[in-house]
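Help wanted!
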Amino acid sequence: MKFIPNSSIKQEMLTEINLDRIDDLFLDIPNKIRIKGLNLDDGLSQQETYQKLKKISAKNIPASKILSFLGGGIKQHFVPPVVKAITSRSEFYTAYTPYQPEASQGFLQAMFEYQSMITEITGMDVANCSLYDGFTALSEAVLMSARITKKDKFLIPGNIFWEKKSILCNYAKGPNIEIIEISYDPKTGKINLDILSKKLDNNTAGIYIENPNFFGIFEDSVSEIKKMCTDVGALLVVGIDPLSIGITKSPGDYGADIVIGEGRNLGNQMDFGGSSLGIFACKKDYLRQMPGRIIGMTKDSGGKRAFCMALQTREQHIRRGKATSNICTNEGLCALAACTYLSWLGGTGLEKLSKKNFDMGKKLCDAITSIDGFTQQFSGVHFNEFVVNSKKPIDKINKNLLAKQIHGGLILSPWYPELNNCFLVGITEMHEDEDIKKFVQALREVSDV
Amino acid sequence: MYRSARFDEPLLNELLSTSIKENKTKIDKFQNSIKRTEAINIPNLDETQVVRHFNRLSQMNYGIDTGIYPLGSCTMKYNPKICEEIAAWPHFSETHPHQDESTIQGNLQILFELERMLSEITGMDFFSLQPAAGAQGEFLGLLLARAYHDYNNDNYRTEVILPDTAHGTNPASAAMAGYNIIEIASNSEGTVDLDTLEKTLSEKTACFMLTNPNTLGIFESEILEISKLVHKSGALLYYDGANMNAIMGKARPGDMGFDIVHLNLHKTFSTPHGGGGPGSGPVGVKMKIEKFLPVPRICKNNYGEYYFDYDTPYSIGKIKAHYGNFSVLLKAYIYILLMGGNGLKEASEIAVLNANYMKDKITASKNYVMPYKKNRKHEFVLSCEDLKKRRDIRALDVAKRLLDYGLHPPTIYFPLIVKEALMIEPTETESKEELDHYIETMIKIAKEDFELVKNSPKNTAVGRVDDVGATKNPVLNWQMIQS
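Answered by r_m:
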């Protein structure tokens, strides 16, 4: 019942190894710190647990029960049932890291295929088989840039999500890398090129840009930025939303050296922000500086194609204090979901999906800005998210929307005080034209009050 | 006789692309500089092809649902199905991290209560649930140690000490946090040498990292003396919780004097490893370190409503996006509800019983030697050194031959202080029948025909894999095959 089959025969087993009591096995714990048990409730039956969780879950309102336009880089996308059918195969989800390749060929091949598709999407030469999330992937990219260039300054856009910035600052503490924020152009919402070129110097390890950026806007001055990097020997790190790649170039095509991103959108659920999937890919020259697990193709003793973990000498279990990263457990199952999802979608499907998201973003933007008192904050071309400026207090608007079973955008002022009364709205292929109408109608009503 | 499924399954890009390719994507308002001009080279397959492909792959993979998986320090225990099902409910899986607090009270309740439960289990005061894995927990723990020392104007502490039995992530995390690493040799019993520790500790020590029971499966009985020495030097004591499955309900790191603790929910609390992740590595701290914990903290007001608290001026900020791997945290919460305090205690008791049962039976056969102290907790480390000398059979060979019997091998070649190491952790979820079968098979292998063992495995999807070749000539994606 409690997943402890030997519970009823413990006495018999103890006798077999010449012990009397279970506590004989714990005599090496000093008396002073031995405890009698834990102050936790007794275990529940599976049925009781199920019912308890039903009650708790009812205190949540999931995306399917509310019309949501929340942005912030995470939104609900369609997850085809085929993904769950595959990730629920317990040979996959109950496996450990594939240390024994002969017993793990299935997972290893799937990860090799995941790496292949990420390589294609990013336009890089090599990809690893996942980091924790897109946020920590940026941190690892910055550390890696500093190791490669042996420089200790890194430039990031001032409008990356504050959480990402905070994580990066924590990761940069150890190697003492100076993180410099480049403010955005208040008109376009894109990175300010003048400031960027002023802050850039020979001590710069790299520049990070996002496509689309946190405000949903495409950074299209990529050739200018790449030239700035080349001039000072800095690396170009690009963050992507993989679902936008169907309409945009792969960053490798405009000179990126390292590409990172949040891969949750590829067949994973929102899950309240986690699990997540850190995408990480780079140019071949930097392979041996890469963090995380990498799966390679090789042969078995009979010359047959086989897969295994490659380049493990970069990793903590071999290199210990000199490893390229401390990462051990990654997000394997989320990578498997992404792999299944991309195979199901195909290249053509991804292109259509990107286009659909782009079109919905444009439709929603046109609809909202047609309402009096609502304007688009930035002029840059956006993907499926954008910043809306409201004449009326935005928190009140969101509150009133919620009363109508609609979740408004992400309020930005706590992190960007200059964006008072702005919210970041997002839309995906899951929304219908009818939903846009409902949102606009509701926005009209709540802003009239 | 065991036989693994064996398909010559092509790569996805070698499957016949049957769907019609069309690319009529036109975006007008777009700058040419970043507009896609070429089709994405991912094959267009039919759903039937995709499903068969991955199903066949899954059949060439070994999971805990296939059989015993006694990887030492990995705690591969059974993953209850109910946890999987509940975590997939849309009421949990379809929630957005930035939703209004009033619409996510269920999620917040779970996080709030889980923090209390983990505090009780470990004897710590507060927890951060944010780290995505044990290694990230270590990294957070060390950032907290740094914040603590900085706060006390004690910022010349540049060293982290750890024993030579430590997991590889310990030194890697300490290095990432900017510390110099000092590794100290274990004594003849396989535990921390108090004299060496005392001599190594100084006003430069930020932290001493310890796994207890250690990676040999030995409980550090002098833990109270260790704690005293570490604190006398002004350093903090860090607990690597990878081996927590040995002591739940029997002893608590908080009572041993540890200041910072990380747990691996994907080990001790039965959430699945997913072929490598997602995991979860919550970090527990004592009161004096609370104010540095990552934001947001999850709190409850007088009306019983839960909310995020970002108003913590000394917080180090964020370590992972949003609130950690929520789906993993949820599964661990369900597991703790199912087990209850007594169930967790029994889990540890039987995990230790199972390990000692295996240890006694295998060592009695005299085919494998067990160096260091005899008393072990939930895992034990055998050496094949004698077998290697006598018959040229190495730990690697034993591991590969076990695969032929449909049994997953133990962790091999770790910890580094044991030559030809086999590190075995059966966990509490294996039956005596499974344990006996494993014991018999290991004894049998030690006596088997040399060629048979050296040429194993034969019954797996592929034969012994050339991993050296994979590193020498890296082929890391299908693009590299073509070129």
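OP: Thanks! One thing I noticed: The radius of gyration of chain B is 25 Å.
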